[in-house]
Structure formats: C-alpha cells, structure tokens
Amino acid sequence: MDGKVDLLNLTIEELENFFLEMGQQKFRAKQVFQWVNKGVKDIDEMTNLSKDIRESLRASAYINKLEVVEKFVSKIDGTTKYLFKLIDGNIVESVLMKYEHGFSVCISSQVGCKMGCKFCASTGVGFLRNLTSAEMLDQVLTIQNDAGSRVGNVVVMGIGEPFDNYDNLVKFIRLINHKDGMNLGARHIAVSTCGLVPEILKLSKENLPITLSISLHATNDEAREKIMPVNKRYSIDKLIEACKIYTETTSRRITFEYALIDGVNDLIEYAQQLSNLLKGMLCHVNLIPVNSVTNTGFKKSSKERIYKFKEVLEKRGIETTVRRELGADIDAACGQLRRSLIEAVKE
Ligand code: SAH
Q: Would you call 103 helix, strand, or coil by DSSP?
C-alpha cells in the first residue's frame, strides 16, 4: 500500500521501533498493538492516541483489512465458510466451526499451494503467493468480530502449505499467542503439514508447543508418492523420524491425518502398516472420509471400511478418531469454494 506499513503485521518490538523512528514514545506500541489485535481497522478509533499521532500514523501506516466476499452457513451444523478478498484482490477461504467447547477457526496460509497432492482441491488452481502474518491473523479477527464470540482454537489447515511459508507462520503464531493480543495458548493452535521435514525440525526448536498434524494418507513410499509428490523429497522414514523428535522436544502429541480413499489407501493391510509405523509414538490417528473433488476421481471409503480400519488400528494400540464431517452442504473442505469460484469465473 504505497510503501506504508501494515500495523497488524508488527510485533510489539517492531511497533516500538516504528514509534521511536516517528519521534514518538515507545509505550504507544502496546496501545496500537492492543487495538489492531482486537480487529480495529480505523486509526481514528484508537481513542487513547492524540489527533496528531493518529494523523502521522495514517500518513505512514495502514491496517490489513479483509473483505467478506461471501459467507455460507451450513444448515446442518452452523459451520460457516468465509470467502475473503485480500487487499490485492486475491481470494482465500476460512471456516468457522462451532463446537460445544467453543469456536474454532480454520485459516489459509497461502494463496494456492505448490504441493500438488492429487486429492486436494487446491491442486490445479496453482500457487500465487504467501500470506503475510497479518493476513493469517486477520482471518481469525474478522471471523471473531463477525460471529461476536471469542475464538478459542485456531487450525492452520485451509489453503496452502503452512511450512512453505514458515517465517510468516511462526510470526503469526507469536502474534496470536501474545498476552496483549488474542492471548491464544499454543495448545489451542494446530498446524497441518504435508510433511516438510526441515521445518518440522525447526519448529521443534522454537519453544512453541503447538499441536502438529501430519497429512500422512499412505503408509509406504510407493503409495504415498503416487498421491503426494512431496514424498519424493522426504520419505516416510525421514518424516516419522522428524515427528519423533518433535514429540520428544515438545512433549506434544502429534495427529496423523489419514484421508480414506476408496480402493486407494483403505485396504486393511494399510491399517496394519500404519500401526507398525506409529508404534510407541506419542500420537493419534484422525481418519477422514475423503471429500470428492471434481476431476480427481477419488471417492470416499464406505462407512464399514472406515470403521474396520479404525478397529484394526485400535486393536494394535493406536488411538483413533473418525473426523466428523462438518459443513458438508457448503463445500467446507479446504480449497473447495475458492476452486469453484475460480472455475465459475473462468467459464
Ligand atoms: N498443506 C497442509 C494444510 C492444508 S490441507 C497439509 O497438507 O496438511 C488440510 C488437510 O486437508 C490435510 O490433511 C489434507 O491432506 C486434507 N485434504 C485435502 N484435500 C482433501 C480432500 N479432498 N478430502 C479430505 N481431506 C483433504
């Protein structure tokens, strides 16, 4: 925005430097941090700043603002999908899930994705750019203000590969975690990755004990490479080794996501292989009935198959849940709405 600084993208320390450079006092940083992290978008609403300060702020800074393009509310369970327009016109999506224990928001981390997983709606639409920390944070703030209720959990599981945007992701987590901001505990933040090993190891050293979800979806390299190209870079053994290091350094349990695709990865022998891979690890498995995405040709496994798969894992001591399908009537699964929108525009 014409060389201006996005205030929502700054840590308190960065804001302090910003105010010192403006010839103002350092304590202003905390005031502005508190305002923008509440979702305030207009500098004039910052009533504890003098008119002069507000004017010079306006000259050199702006606050990221997402525009709600559309909102889809599920009639089944109230799950709400937001399509947001970013300042440069790009579109991302986020989902609000209403659980009994509170509100949870699923956010996007990139515009598009480079990973090319065969079953995913983001594949084929291409990669455009990384989101800034402010753009990730603003998805949560905008939904929180729109819903009028505190968001207690955030999952980075929407469009994009969060570890392919590592620095902005970690900055976002530190911002949302900050006591003067949303003050959301690390245990209430989950990040899902297709398995970028160097970043898993890096995160284990950040002193940010968030929940890590690994999109595994297959139990041997040959099968995984067919549906997830990233496996050619990092084999399953390397991935599992990195996960073990993560659980050992953070004491956090890892979630392994396994989307069951009819006839592709749902044979019972795969459940056995999976239990061998994960034996003795601090982890649990989340089975997801795959969402069919146009043109991928993948179908969900039958209910019987899903429960049989679960039973085999549990018999072998692996804690397993089956993901509840929320918002099935609003294409709530990641990337689906943005993809339908882009396709509609192309036609
Ligand atoms: N890139 C990250 C986060 C985005 S994908 C990752 O790979 O984890 C979020 C989750 O949705 C992942 O577990 C992903 O594998 C899963 N997913 C993608 N397409 C899906 C589909 N069609 N059905 C079910 N789950 C899907």
A: strand
